[in-house]
Amino acid sequence: MKVILNEDIKGIGKKGQIIEVADGYGRNFLLKQKKAILATDGGIREVKAIKEKLDKKKAAELQDAKDLAAKLEGQEIVFHEKVGTEGRLFGAVTNKEICEQVNKQFNLNLDKKKFDLKDSIKHLGVEHCKIKIYPGVSAEIKVKVEAKE
Fold first, then answer.
1. Are 35 and 74 within one domain?
2. What is the CATH number of the domain that holds 27?
3. Is the separation of the CB atoms in 107 and 90 below 8 Å?
4. Rounded to the nearest 5°, which phi and psi values hold at 111?
5. Which of 31, 37, 43, 60 has an alpha carbon within 20 to 30 A of 6's alpha carbon?
6. pTM for this predicted structure
7. What is the dihedral of CA 42, 43, 46, 51, to 10 degrees?
8. Is 44 left (phi over 0), alpha (psi -120 to 50) or beta?
């Protein structure tokens, strides 16, 4: 029996996939619990149309991510912080603060978890921060920390 899965089922397949299953399993479990529908010609065409639509959407998202990465690549964010002896900061510049500054400066809505900074910045100077925008797409910005006058 051929069925089209309505949801991901571990060990069987992913949503939208057309699979061959035993008649009893298909009739008594998958169809009964609406985890799948019978694979008719119309259903197969519908699944292919949905898949094409999703592929186009993913391609558009990827292109938007690449455009954003090109916009952010090499940009510099400047922080003015209080400094103690030997150029050490009284506090630290964290992912959250960098994220807020980038979102404010470039009018974006990025999540702080997308910012890959090895450790908080606790000294004056320039550090590089990688931003993971989309799977396989990232940008690197410069974070410059200067002494507050």
1. no
2. 3.40.5.10
3. no
4. -90, 145
5. 60
6. 0.71
7. -140
8. alpha
